[in-house]
Amino acid sequence: MRILLAAAGSYGDVAPYTGLGARLRAAGHDVAIATQESFAPLVRGAGLTFRPLPAQTSGADAGGGKRQLMRTAAAFVRQLGSGLADAAEPGADVLLLSTTTAPLGWQLAEAMGVPSLGVYLQPTHPTKEFAPVVTGGRSLGSLGNRALGRFSLRMADRVYADAVADLRARLTLPLATLGAVRRRQEAAGWPVLYGFSTAVVPRPADWRDGLDAVGNWWPHHDPDIPLPARFEEFLRAGPPPVFIGFGSMAAGEGARLSELAVSALRRAGLRGVLQEGRAGLMAHGDDILSVDEVPHALLFPRMAAVVHHAGAGTTAAGLRAGVPAIPVPVMADQPFWAARIAGIGAATAPLPFKELTAQRLAERIGRAVRETSYKEAARAVSRRMGAEDGAGHVLKAVERLG
To answer: Would you say residue 302 has pLDDT above 60?
Structure first.
């Protein structure tokens, strides 16, 4: 079966699909991933066909407001429609669509006459049980949560409206608003498999049939490639260090954050590993190691704790490794995941990025490392995650479509 998997956004929005694609390829399917050019090495490294999308995201700015975020998102998706149409021209028997690409992918599936399946990393369907993830996770009560969930979808439809209109015109499809297409998909019970663990977010009881939380799929990495020798030397030279990284967040704040991170680690009396990321974290010393791109699956199990921005993928990787977290959420869905892992006891209380100081970070690091309850909770979640097979569920769903 020819499978086209479309995903776009930051590293964390794309990398997990390389592992999903590799699982589908191992089952004998021909898998291509359509995404931005910057992720071509990730896709090809997993043995998958790469199809380029023209859209580029410059990453998120911790200081940007909601209006700026909306403008950035609208500009981003305006580039996606024609790129997805180009990526689909070689043909496909089924489309797998991420949260970002689904509103455009529905139009492609309609024009191509092929089935499609949602493979989402964050819960997006309205529910009484929690507020939309992009609103920060603070509950407004059952009625408020569901109402805000519906409003959030309408706002997303506004972001995609022009791109969808352009794409339907290119594909010679009848005029239809994205809201109308979405309602049609919901009425038909369009299936979505959510790639997160029910140990973190139980499936809401009020979700319709066809919406299932199946467990994570993970970024592909070659298990035969170990950590570089200098990493192993550092890890063996002392007690397990604390990881600090902010992913695609905080561009241009590397000098400040590096100094803050080193100060926090030394106040806590602990060694550290700083991941450069988009912020550009960098420091040197016998008790500090700076790294660039290293698979979290290799690095996190060797850590005493992980400090991160609480993106969906990094959050899941820390739980999978069974290590406690100190979440420092910046924006979007990050406060939601930060609150979730704190709520299950696997992380300290979130430390919002805007409130980050060396003293506050040191206090939370010390607590996460020295109070055993955090590690016990993280390990319990890790065991539950180990029993899940998110990619396997997707494989079964795809083969049912065929």
So the answer is: yes
Structure tokens at 43: 């896709």
Sketch the domain layout of the chain as residue ranges.
2-220+388-401, 229-386
What residues contact residue 315 under an 8 Å CB cut-off, 6+ apart?
200, 308, 325, 327, 337, 338, 340, 341
Non-local CB neighbours of 219 within 8 Å, separated by 6+ positions: 15, 16, 18, 19, 42, 295, 296, 297, 313
Nearest to 356, CA basis, from 276, 249, 284, 272:
249
Q: pLDDT band at residue 66, thresholds of 50, 70 and 90?
A: low
Q: Is the CB of residue 38 less than 8 Å from the CB of residue 26?
A: no
Mean pLDDT of the region 217-224: 89
| Two tokens, residue 330 | 């910046």
Mention every residue, 6+ apart, whose C-beta is less than 8 A from residue 276. 245, 254, 282, 290, 291, 292
**CA–CA distance, 27 with 399 (Å, rounded to integer):** 10
pLDDT for res 67: 67
CB contact burial 159-189 (16+ within 10 A = b; e otherwise): bbbebbbbbbeeeeeeeeebeebbeebeeee
CATH code that applies to domain 229-386: 3.40.50.2000
Cβ atoms of 220 and 19 within 8 Å: the answer is yes
What are the pLDDT digits (tens) for 167-199? 999 999 999 999 999 999 999 999 999 999 999
Q: What is the pLDDT of residues 367-400, one digit of tens each?
A: 999 999 999 999 999 999 999 999 999 999 999 9
Cβ proximity of 379 and 206 under 8 Å: no
Using CA atoms, how far residue 277 sits from 12, 110, 245, 252, 294, in Å, is 12, 38, 7, 11, 11
Q: What is the pLDDT of residues 80-113, one digit of tens each?
A: 888 999 999 999 999 999 999 999 999 999 999 9
Collect contacts of 141-147 with beta carbons under 8 A, ≥24 apart: 146/206
* Domains 2-220+388-401 and 229-386 equal at CATH topology level: yes
CATH topology of domain 2-220+388-401: Rossmann fold (3.40.50)
